[in-house]
From TrEMBL:
Gene3D superfamilies linked: Ribonuclease H-like superfamily/Ribonuclease H
GO biological processes: DNA integration
Listed GO MF terms: nucleic acid binding
PROSITE patterns the UniProt entry points to: INTEGRASE
Superkingdom of origin organism: Bacteria
One Pfam family hit: rve_2
Full protein name: Putative transposase
Domain Integrase catalytic: 1-106
Length: 106
């Protein structure tokens, strides 16, 4: 993936892959903000973990067919993000989608 929106945030754990100098440089060159939980505090990234859990359970886990290509995964994730932001209502947002909630608050 070569195109990232300005200010894109990459949540990750503190594993060796994500803490290498090489990974840091790639993220910096692509203007991606790295976000990690503090050591021993996995709740720091709880919002994105909830999103990932919903994404997997509402898309990939309900499919009986194996995923055939990276393009299918990319399309599924992009479609789900659009759905999540624009259509999926959340109780904590007064039964509004995130986009509708933001519009109402401004």
């Amino acid at each position: 993936m070569d195109k990232f929106p300005k200010g894109a945030i990459l949540p990750s754990e503190q594993g060796s892959t994500y803490t290498t100098k090489e990974f840091f440089e790639v993220a910096r060159k692509k203007n991606v903000i790295r976000s990690m939980s503090r050591m021993g505090t996995p709740s720091d990234n709880a919002p994105i973990e909830l999103f990932h859990s919903s994404l997997k359970s509402e898309t990939f886990y309900i499919n009986k067919e194996p995923i055939g290509s990276n393009n299918i995964v990319i399309d599924s994730v992009e479609n789900y993000i659009t759905f999540w932001n624009n259509k999926r209502v959340l109780t904590k947002l007064g039964h509004l989608s995130p986009v509708d909630y933001r519009k109402k608050m401004t």
